[in-house]
Design a protein that fits this description.
This protein has eleven helices and 19 strands. The protein has about 400 residues and is an alpha/beta fold. The chain has three domains: about 60 residues, Archaeosine Trna-guanine Transglycosylase, Chain: A, domain 4 (Roll); about 100 residues, Transcription Regulator spoIIAA, CATH 3.30.750.80; about 190 residues, 3-Layer(aba) Sandwich (Rossmann fold). The strands form four sheets. It has a seven-stranded mixed β-sheet with strand order 15-14-13-16-17-19-18, with helices on both faces. Helix 7 links the parallel strand 13 and strand 14. Helix 6 runs parallel beside helix 7 and helix 10 packs across helix 11. The longest helix has 18 residues. The N and C termini lie far apart (about 65 Å).
């Protein structure tokens, strides 16, 4: 491997795998895009090995801090370790995230399992160079009926990569159906959002439904209806809201799969407009799930995003009945736990209602958080109760 010398190393020595271009002692332009390199400090002490992309702000992502060959055997060991972690800490590995990028020390790689279907998402040029090796290993180790490449994330553009999605093994004549607690969810790995489902919220959805005690439920930004279905299975009359007809069709299909379609209503509307209308009409709900998309993509947009989060949370709080519950989330990494909770406090004040924090939660255990990599902890989820 080529050798790279760093100017600054304190953050890297503390365990972070990202090396920015301004931390290199020489221009990264002299290295082949996506090639493997060895990294040394300015005293010529070995730090680790990773892949480099001279056209990315994050010039190097470390794969290892050992002196070892980065080959098929290396990736087999890392994938095996990821699988063993899930077998140990997840009660059901039939459907879960098998590889979570930096959280599993394989930066740039996501792998999701939906029953007998594997979905691979590659986000970086360096990992793209290993695509055939990784796909072959996953096929050999897991023997799935279907393998889908979901390489359509906009993050790839920053790496100079094209967007694509395709089936590389098997057929999707029948979509996989996964189990989430007692609920069934049909997943579309090729055309659905993300890789087909939002697995990171699975544990939160099940936990929230166990707090619900009947009445009216509301699932905002419902997508496939995963939050609301958990409530409907508990006997609630649930309204699903999304501005996408395709999402609502998916939610209807899942309601039918679970035998609860008769207690579900589906509304095509903007969530802000729907909440405003419900508040003006005096409607109230016993359980509300608010799981919006990320409102902030960069630090420059934090203030603007917080205004959006504050507004929609205040509106949702207004329609929660006294003693009712609100599950509210943010998947924006740039908004940390304390900022998120402060936003909820302000939203509560705006709603002129008092709430108690029942639980503060994060992403599921199949999205492991590496202590030395703050970016691996991105999901915030709070369960609130409207005080009497």
């Amino acid at each position: 491997m080529d050798k790279v010398i760093l100017k600054r190393t304190s953050r890297i020595l503390a365990g972070h795998p990202w090396i920015f271009s301004n931390e290199l002692s020489t221009s990264p332009k002299r290295f082949g895009p996506g090639s493997l390199v060895e990294v040394y400090d300015n005293r010529n002490e070995y730090i680790g090995a990773g892949y480099i992309n001279p056209n990315s702000l994050i010039a190097i992502r470390l794969l290892t801090r050992e002196r070892e060959k980065i080959d098929a055997g290396f990736f087999r060991r890392r994938i095996t370790a990821a699988l063993r972690y899930r077998e140990r800490f997840l009660p059901d590995t039939g459907s879960c995230r098998l590889v979570f990028s930096e959280g599993d020390f394989l930066p740039g790689l996501m792998v999701d399992k939906y029953a007998d279907c594997i979905v691979i998402q590659i986000l970086t040029l360096g990992m793209e160079k290993q695509k055939d090796t990784i796909t072959g290993l996953l096929d050999e180790m897991l023997a799935p009926s279907v393998i889908v490449l979901r390489n359509d994330s906009r993050t790839r553009i920053l790496e100079g990569l094209s967007l694509e999605k395709k089936i590389v093994k098997g057929r999707l004549d029948t979509l996989p159906v996964i189990r989430e607690g007692e609920a069934l969810l049909e997943v579309d790995p090729l055309s659905g959002q993300k890789t087909g489902s939002f697995l990171d919220q699975r544990e939160n959805r099940i936990a929230f439904s166990r707090l619900a005690k009947g009445g009216r439920g509301l699932d905002l930004f419902c997508y496939s209806g995963a939050w609301g279905l958990q409530l409907a299975r508990r006997g609630m009359q649930v309204t699903f809201v999304d501005d996408s007809e395709a999402a609502l069709a998916r939610a209807r299909r899942n309601a039918e799969l679970n035998g609860v379609a008769g207690t579900c209503d589906f509304v095509k509307d903007d969530a802000f407009a729907f909440l405003k209308s419900e508040a003006e009409s005096g409607s109230g709900y016993d359980s509300v799930a608010l799981d919006p998309p990320a409102f902030v993509k960069s630090k420059l947009k934090i203030k603007e995003a917080l205004r959006g989060y504050r507004e929609i949370n205040a509106m949702a709080m207004r329609i929660v009945k006294s003693g009712g519950l609100l599950a509210t989330s943010s998947c924006s990494y740039h908004i940390d736990r304390m900022v998120f909770l402060d936003m909820l406090r302000t939203a509560s004040r705006d709603s002129r209602k008092s709430f108690r924090l029942l639980e503060y939660r994060s992403q599921g255990k199949d999205h492991p958080v590496a202590l030395s990599i703050p970016e691996t902890e991105y999901l915030k989820c709070a369960f609130l109760e409207a005080s009497h």
